[in-house]
What we know:
With about 55 residues, the protein is mainly alpha-helical. It contains two helices and no strands.
Amino acid sequence: AVIVPDFEQALRVARDRAGAGTVIVTGSFHTVGDAMLELDILPFQPDPGLPPAAAAV
């Protein structure tokens, strides 16, 4: 385990150590949202490979 006190630096270290693998961030909505922004992941956007959701009528 590696302890990195700075949030943004910790994400960079995790991303570098993961290589082509996956980085999983857990925590509060605020923490996960900050991680998504730092990793250039746009929250609340549909995945491009998924079909549109069906609307209930």
